[in-house]
Amino acid sequence: MYCPFCRHPDSRVIDSRTSDDGLSIRRRRQCPECGGRFSTTETASLSVIKRSGVVEPFSREKVVLGVRKACQGRPVTDADLAVLAQKVEETIRSTGASQIEANDIGLAILPPLRELDEVAYLRFASVYQAFESLEDFESAIEALRAEHGRLPARPVE
């Protein structure tokens, strides 16, 4: 770690603390050359493998953008989406993998989105679970109803 004051190529760690969210470490450092003190924040890198094979860093913003489309017209705030993106990142990091496929991120979005808004969940799930027919939607709706203890709607005769 280069000293930001004198550019000396080394520094000594004085103190280390885990951040409030537990996803990063804050280190207080001191330069042995000039004595300057500074802080660094360290996080484990998380990479996404896209369908095309390209690898890029994980981005909460991209999670929010993808989910925002499914939430159009729904009572979901930007703060709700930020919390959802944080939950998704925590879920992915808890796997311990340093690289994850883009489709797995989509699947990790489903449980917290289901809690947030069921209509947005169905919209998003129709893409990531590859719904191909009305029966796929009906199955997903029946699963939601069963979860809530509601009986399926009876057909009108």
UniProtKB/TrEMBL annotation:
GO MF assignments: ATP binding; DNA binding; zinc ion binding
Stretches assigned to coiled coil: none
Name of the featured protein: Transcriptional repressor NrdR
Residues annotated as domain ATP-cone: 46-136
One GO process term, biological-process aspect: negative regulation of DNA-templated transcription
Zinc finger (unnamed): 3-34
Source organism phylogeny: Bacteria, Bacillati, Actinomycetota, Actinomycetes, Micrococcales
InterPro entries: ATP-cone_dom (IPR005144), NrdR-like_N (IPR055173), RNR_NrdR-like (IPR003796)
Keyword Ligase: no
Function field: Negatively regulates transcription of bacterial ribonucleotide reductase nrd genes and operons by binding to NrdR-boxes.
Family membership: Belongs to the NrdR family.
Note accompanying the cofactor annotation: Binds 1 zinc ion.
Highest taxon above the source species: Bacteria
PROSITE patterns linked: ATP_CONE
Keywords: ATP-binding, DNA-binding, Metal-binding, Nucleotide-binding, Repressor, Transcription, Transcription regulation, Zinc, Zinc-finger
Keyword Zinc-finger in record: yes
One Pfam family, short name: ATP-cone
